[in-house]
Amino acid sequence: MSEQYPGYARTFYSVLKYNGVELGVSKQVESIEYTDNASGTLDQISITLNDRDGIAWQPEKGADLDVTIYLENWFNYGAATKPLKYHCGNFVVDDITITGNPWKMIVKAVSEPANGDFKNKTNTKTWEKTTLKAIATEFLGKYGMTKMYFNGPDQAIDSIEQSDKTDSAFLKEVCEKYGYDLKVYKVGFVIFKEEAYEGSAKNFYRLYLGKAYEIPDADYPLHEMQQNYTWNSTLQGTYTGAIIKYTDPKTGKTVKSKVGKTEPKTLTVGSTADPTRVLYINQKASSIAEAELIAKNKVNAENKKAVTFTMSPALFNPFINASNCIDVKKSGRINGRYFIDTVSVSYGSGGLTETFKCHKVFERL
Question: I want to staple 201 with a disulfide (CB 3.0 to 4.6 A). Which of 27, 121, 314, 327 is the partner?
């Protein structure tokens, strides 16, 4: 026993609920791999169980699976404390594999609505004089979902066509067009403006070099990141501006507009300035204002790849999720604020770990 860790070891365990009923199979859970995405892709989970003590659970595709990880004595250096709760989420079972000798069962699930038509059935419809929130609300009721969190001003839409597309693909397309992120849960939607989350960070991280610096010794594990990080800065596929062409629906004429920096720039030898990089877009739009909004959103979406960062905290933090921001300090070139696009969680005999895939917060058009 040391002064810093006086005898209460960190431990973790999982609780699985199947169709709302706790299974009691925590001892049979060998591993959990969970992916939490900020937007665009469904959250996914894969659970591997063994039959060491006998297991009667026979899951079926389409059933409800709820997974929570509990952490005991996680941030505590003295007395024992109440377990912390990390709720992976509510999922729909979509894949089951059983192998023999030794017996294993791998259950995979995704965070999609129970009604598969949302993702599988195509529809055609023209939406007139509507809003983004109204479209999402209609889908919410259509698929028996109950919750929606809409963070940002609603977007007025003069006219938009859903042409032989699934409601899932169409809603994602509309959100992206107007600069919103969409996260789909089993019970509803989260629709948000990414920049609304960039004003503050959930935690800060730095490389720990064996000295406390401004971090008290007892707190440094909460802020240390592992050495196996990857940081990348690129010009490839990023843009300083865009030129968009669209056909005016009232006059039938082709209209061209520019946003951002689109004029060629001549660089002198030894210059460190970025050259002008233009994205060319052909897109339907109801007005020049909408066309320019679409162009800015496309440039901003592409520029997320300008600076990317993948890292693993030294200590699993149950309070950080995809769409949160973190700050990196005292770590040289990689310092800055980063938006977390994906959190990958690994639970098993090797411990409980997480990896953040991020992009650096940037100035949008």
Answer: 327
